[in-house]
Amino acid sequence: MRPTVHDIAAEAGVSLATVDRVLNARVGVRAETRERVQAAVTRLGYVRDVAAANLAKSRSYAIRFILPDGDNPFMHALKAHVLQVGDPATRLGGLERLAVSLDPVPSLDAVALAAALDRAGEQRPAGIAVVAVDAPEVEAAIGRLTARGIPVATLVSDLPASGRRHFAGIDNIAAGRTAGGLMRRFLSGRSGPVAVIAGSLTLRDHRERLSGFADVLAQGAQALNLLPVLEGGDDPVRVEALAGRLIAEVPDLAGIYSLGAGDQGLIRALSAAPERRPQAVLLHELSPHTRQALEAGLVDAVLAQDPGHIARSAVRVLRAFADGTSFDPAQERIRIDIFLKDNLPPG
Amino acid sequence: MRPTVHDIAAEAGVSLATVDRVLNARVGVRAETRERVQAAVTRLGYVRDVAAANLAKSRSYAIRFILPDGDNPFMHALKAHVLQVGDPATRLGGLERLAVSLDPVPSLDAVALAAALDRAGEQRPAGIAVVAVDAPEVEAAIGRLTARGIPVATLVSDLPASGRRHFAGIDNIAAGRTAGGLMRRFLSGRSGPVAVIAGSLTLRDHRERLSGFADVLAQGAQALNLLPVLEGGDDPVRVEALAGRLIAEVPDLAGIYSLGAGDQGLIRALSAAPERRPQAVLLHELSPHTRQALEAGLVDAVLAQDPGHIARSAVRVLRAFADGTSFDPAQERIRIDIFLKDNLPPG
DNA sequence: CAGATTTTGATTTACGTATCTCAGAATCTG
DNA sequence: CAGATTCTGAGATACGTAAATCAAAATCTG
C-alpha cells in the first residue's frame, strides 16, 4: 500500500498536524523538525493523493476559454472540444473538478478581446485560455492578468511578448517550412510559379507561415518562383474570386498554398476548372470541405493541428500552473499534422 | 455547487441508502422507487464524483504491460513512456490510482508470450496491454483472459480475432497506403523501380503495410515497378547488406520504402554512397538515427506512431473498460504521423 | 389476517487529506 | 528564572461516496 500522512507522522515521530504543516509549507515548524519529516517522506516514497487532497479542499478549477465568434470551421471544432472537456460526465471534467466556461468575442476585434480578458480576470479563475490577436491592447490585458497571478495560455495564435505562460498551438514558421518542403517534393523536377493565398498578413500566424514557406522555396537547387501573396480575408467568397482569377490567368501555375481559412472558396474554384488544377495544392486544417477535397484529389495534402488536443492540453497546462506542479512538455506539444488522402482519420 | 447523493436523496424523498442502492445497481429496490431516484438524478443533473468514489472504494487499477525485450528503439521508447505513465508522481499515476507493471518477454516468441499472458492473468489485474505476436497460442491466451473478464488491449501489432477489447496502434494498411501516396508524389513524373525492405512477412503489421503500399503504387496513370520484397529481419546488419547491394545493383532505383525496423543499417548504406541515393526514401518510426537521417537529407519522410500516446491511451482505455465507462474514440485514435525535416518535434 | 418476505430508513465507518482549535511543551529573551 | 514566544500534539470536522448493519415499514403469500 502507498504510504499516507499517518505513516509519515509515525515514521518521523511527529504528529499529523506537524506533517501537514510541512507538506503544505505552513509556518511554525523548526528547521530540524521539517527535515525529519522530509526525510520520512523520501524514505517511504510518499506522494500526496491528489484526488483525496482536492476532495478535502473541495477545490475546483475554473478555466475560462475566450474564443472568437464567426463561421471559421476550425474555431467551431475547437469550441466543441472545449465544451466536451468541461463536461463533468467525461473523465477530465469528472475526475479533475473542472469548471470550464466559454466566452465568445467578435473575431479579430482587439478592443473587445482586451475587454473580455479583463472581465474574465475579475472572477479570479484558475486560468484563462485565449486565441490572441496581435495588438497592444491584448498584450497589455494579458500582462495585467499575469501580474495578478492568473496564468494565461494562448491558443492557436501566440503573443509571446505578452507574458503568457504557455502557448498551445503549432510552430507556424515550421508549418510554413513543412508546406514548402512538401511543395518542393511534390513538384520535384518541374518548375513554374507558385501562389500563396493568405487571410491577412496582419495576422501573426499567417505571416509566420508565409515566411517559413518562402524560405524553403528559395533554398535549394532549382528555386521555385513565388507569386505575390493574395489576401482573401479568410472569406470563402473572396478566396473563390482570387483563386478563380489565379487559375485562369496563370496557365503554367505549378502549385497553390493556402495558409489561412476560407478554403471552401478555393475548393470551389478548383473544382470549377479541374483540368487547370496545378500539380500541388496544399492548405490548412481539416473540415468537412477540406476532407472531401482531399479524398476527391482536388487537394494534395492538408496541414493541421488537432483542436481536441489543443483544448485538452490547455486545460492540463493551466491546471498545472494553478497547482504549481509540472507537466510533460512532450505530451503538450501540438503537432503539425500532415494529412494525405490515405492517413485521414475517419469521421 | 454540484449536487451530491444527499441532494438526490432529499429530492427523491428517499434515504441515502436507497440512493446508494440505485446508483450502484444493488438489489432490493422496487421499480417505482428506482425510477423516482433516477428522475431526481436527471432532474438535478447529478454526476458521480469519480475521485471521491474511488477514494471510498480505495480502488486501484492494476494494469500490466507485456512488452518485447530487445534493442528495437521504438519498443524502448514505448517502455519508457509506460513507466512514466505509471509513475505516481505524474498526473495520470497520481490522480488515477494506477498500479502499472511491466513484464518483458523475449521478442517474437509466441510461446513465451502466451505464458506471460497467462501469468499476468493470475493476478486478476484491471487490464492487460500487450504487443501481440500473430500466433495461435497468443490468440488463445488472450481469449482465455477475455473469457475471465479481464480486458486486453493490443499495442502496435493487432490480433483482431483474439477477442481483444481494443487496439492501440495505427492502421497499418493505411500507413502503407500513405507511404505509397508519398512515394508517388515524391517521384511525380519520373519512373523507375521501387524497393521495399521489410522485417519479416510473418509479421502482420509488415504484411499490412506492404499490401497498402503495393496497392497505391499499382493504381493511377503511370504505375511504378515494385521490386521483390527484401526481408532484413529487423536487423541493422542484415538490412545494411541488403540495402548496400540494392543501391549498387539497381542503378535507376527511384525509391526505397523500409517498413520494418533495422533502419540504422539502411541509413549506413545510404550514407556510404550518397551519390546513388534514390530520389525518395521513406521509413518508419522516429529514433535518434532516423531523426538525424531526416535532418541530413538522407531520408525524405518518416512515418510514425507516437509511443507516448499509445501508452497513455492504453491506460485510459483499459481503465474505462474496468469501470464500464466510455471513452472518446477520437482521442484514443493513434495517428499516422508524417514527419519531414521541417515538422520534426524537438528533442 | 398472521406470518413470511421484500423494501426502505437511519446510522456508522471508512477512504486520504486539509484545516481548525486549543492546550501543552519547548525554546528563547532579558 | 519568569515571562514571552515559538513549536508541537491531540483531536475534531469536513469533502463526496461506498458499504455495511440493524431495525422498521411495506408488501406479498396462503
Walk me through what this model shows:
Chain A is 48% helix and 15% strand. In chain A, helix 5 crosses helix 14. The first copy, chain A, is elongated and about 85 Å long. The two termini of chain A are 43 Å apart. In chain A, the strands form two sheets. In chain A, strands 6, 7, 8, 9, 10, 11 and 12 form a seven-stranded mixed β-sheet that branches. The first copy, chain A, has three domains: 5-48, lambda repressor-like DNA-binding domains (434 Repressor (Amino-terminal Domain), Orthogonal Bundle), CATH 1.10.260.40; 57-169 and 307-334, Rossmann fold; 172-304, Response regulator (Rossmann fold). Chain A has 347 residues and is of the alpha/beta class. The longest helix of chain A is centred in the last third of the chain and has 17 residues, at 307-323. The structure holds a DNA duplex (30 and 30 nucleotides). Chains A, B: InterPro entries: HTH_LacI (IPR000843), Lambda_DNA-bd_dom_sf (IPR010982), Peripla_BP_I (IPR028082), SBP_2_dom (IPR025997). Chains A, B: It comes from Xaviernesmea rhizosphaerae. Chains A, B: Keywords: DNA-binding, Transcription, Transcription regulation.
